Protein: Translation initiation factor IF-2
Amino acid sequence: VLKVTEFISANDLASLMDVSVNQVIATCMSLGMFVSINQRLDAEAITIIADEFGYEVEFAKPDEEIEAAEEEDSVEDLQDRAPIVTIMGHVDHGKTSLLDYIRRSKVTADEAGGITQHIGAYDVRTSDGHKIAFLDTPGHEAFTAMRARGAKITDVAIIVIAADDSIMPQTKEAINHAQVAGVPMIFAINKVDKPNANPEKIKEELANMNLLVEDWGGKYQSQDISAKTGLGVDELLEKVLLEAEILELKANPNKRAVGTVIEASLDKGRGYVATIMVQAGTLKVGDIMLAGPHYGRVKAMFDHKGKKLSEAGPSTPVQVLGLGGAPQAGDTFKVYETEREAREIANSREQLLREQSMRTKKHITLDEIGRRL
Ligand code: GTP
Ligand code: MG
Structure:
């Protein structure tokens, strides 16, 4: 069995099968296919050629290939890392307000005058010095797909529910995403400052969904909060840290970085700007990174306060300049040792994308993909 990616070149296929490229080309000719050395082959051609040489093929997606190549970390290389938390919930239930409150009280406090910009990901330090990384996810149904992806890099999900409303369709969806991803949930019952707020009614609705919160004798942590006044927010963060402690989150900071793209866009003057979450390893300025079908050398990195960084370790969200295009939210990124390696994978991914868009008869340019974010 030969494990290959689609669009491997005739030359690479030959070396994988340990035959000369001339043999591959000759075989192709005898089958009526005319290929050149560097021509990339589609799945059908690869299957036929491999069969001629007595191989069965199994197609690996580029990402699976990356995971397979991922070296295992030994226990002594692993160090504690901060939890990555996603705030999810129905439209207008207060996700952004909660994050804003946390940022205002926990982030800008230690850096007065800092320019806070919206980058969709933040890291904060609680009053007792613990780090927590947050992802802000858009609340509209159109972003369901991205949100589902968001749950994948998340260690803990905060489900925000407005106490003056009810469990809404997107609340259920958020709960569902967290459950499917196996991510522990903490319920933040928000807007308790409002006169018509009824947190007990929300807890009852949760109980009706088989989600018993702790005060009701269940296993789910919940916290009444007001994102407006800040009531209960410290307690909520303590609960996040408690949940994280149970998970024993660890990563090896001493290797080339891997992680996920949060968002990316083209900025006039700065070029392509990507917000990424480093999940393992340490990303450094000058590294060659590949994200989705785009690669480049990291020219500069910034935290969410706009402060320049020279490196970023596990569970750190950063803005990165230097990619040759805008990857999609949810794409994974990885640092490569050589530009050649990154370029090769980038090319085959780009080709895959082109092929896919041709198949669906939608001619989406990569630029348009970037603009959609
Ligand atoms: P989307 O991103 O559109 O899904 O909304 P969201 O969940 O981020 O909600 P957002 O934080 O934008 O809040 C929606 C509205 O509720 C805003 O007008 C907030 O000012 C208000 N709000 C949020 N939290 C509270 C709260 O704790 N108390 C009160 N009184 N109002 C709140
Ligand atoms: Mg919002």
